[in-house]
Amino acid sequence: MTKIKAALLGFGTVGQGVYEAIKSHQEKLQERLVAEVEIVAVLIKEPYKKREIDPSVLITTNFEDILNIPDLDVVFEAIVGETPSFTYLSKAIEKGCHVITANKVMFAKYGKLLLEKGRKKNVYVGYEATTAGGVPIIRTISQQLQVNDIQRVQAVLNGTSNFILTEMREKGLSFQKALESAQLHGYAEADPANDIEGKDAFFKLMILSDLVFGAQPDWDAVEVEGIQHITVEDIQAAKTQHLRYKHIADIYRYGRTLKASVKPVLVAPDHALYSIEGVENAVTIYASLVDKITISGPGAGKFPTASAMIEDFVSGYQIPRYQFTLNI
Ligand SMILES: NC(=O)c1ccc[n+]([C@@H]2O[C@H](COP(=O)([O-])OP(=O)(O)OC[C@H]3O[C@@H](n4cnc5c(N)ncnc54)[C@H](OP(=O)(O)O)[C@@H]3O)[C@@H](O)[C@H]2O)c1
What we know:
Blueprint: E1 3-9, H1 13-24, H2 26-33, E2 36-43, E3 58-60, H3 63-67, E4 74-77, H4 85-94, E5 98-101, H5 104-121, E6 125-126, H6 137-144, E7 150-156, H7 159-171, H8 175-184, H9 193-196, H10 199-213, E8 223-224, H11 232-240, E9 244-254, E10 257-267, E11 280-287, E12 291-298, H12 302-317
Parallel strand pairs: 1-2, 1-4, 2-3, 4-5, 5-6, 8-10
Antiparallel strand pairs: 7-9, 7-11, 9-10, 11-12
Binding site for NADPH: 104
Keywords: Amino-acid biosynthesis, Methionine biosynthesis, NADP, Oxidoreductase, Sodium, Threonine biosynthesis
Family: Belongs to the homoserine dehydrogenase family.
């Protein structure tokens, strides 16, 4: 059987998820692709960490080793930060590899450029996992809403913030206690700043903006407000009026510009995001023909994110290469 050679950049939560899911779902992958998917190399940063990786797999801290693998088909990227991820993926595309990324910080800034590079080299650039974790929102918009005029997108894009707000409302916890609970459950990072201050949701909103509107608003003009100042008293007062705080990322056309914000909003029971609870993410799309649809699911985590990356790869791999010029 034909082999699809894959390299994995990063072996943290997401990288391990991709590695394990490719093994556990090999039969399904072979059915779909009529080929065996094999992880042949893993790039990591810290060489002395103990890892559950087959001895046949090349483990390296040097990206050049990955580039030197003959006939490499695809690079799955799950490392952190803007650089060196952008450089690595640019080089992989240049070599003729498909690339699949989960890295929202990098993709919010360089996504358009990477897609352009992919088009030029006839390779697939998949970024489903960058936004809303396991929720297939990128594919829904790019493939199922091609004719609709999308007017607005509103979303809960950070599971940690949503979990904290839910805990505060349901259990009467203070912000600090709810944050500690999120950390105990493994939802929040040791440094949760990006989540609770709204930056994580901001990056995802900018990726959606590129996809939906073909452009991003001026980053400095986007109102970004976190949830850290919301008190349990605020939440309980809202509750008595049957309102809930939701941390909502919102973008819509305003004349010739785009208006975007990421901030806590009080919503009523008839709002599409009112019932999105805990670590769930959800995206509501307002469009000319369909009117309004909301898609929700797990916004992060090892296997939901791996699911997004693997499904993304399988869909992209099946597209005839000449068609990548049509990629959004
Ligand atoms: N966690 C989620 O649920 C989730 C969901 C959607 C998207 N994402 C995105 O997916 C990416 C990975 O997230 P994660 O949670 O898996 O992170 P993580 O657990 O911190 O793992 C990061 C991995 O990347 C490696 N790494 C970091 N910088 C590197 C570099 N410069 N060169 C080589 N390897 C490097 C680390 O190596 P060592 O193991 O040697 O330290 C580690 O294996 C991030 O961009 C994140 O935003 C995460």
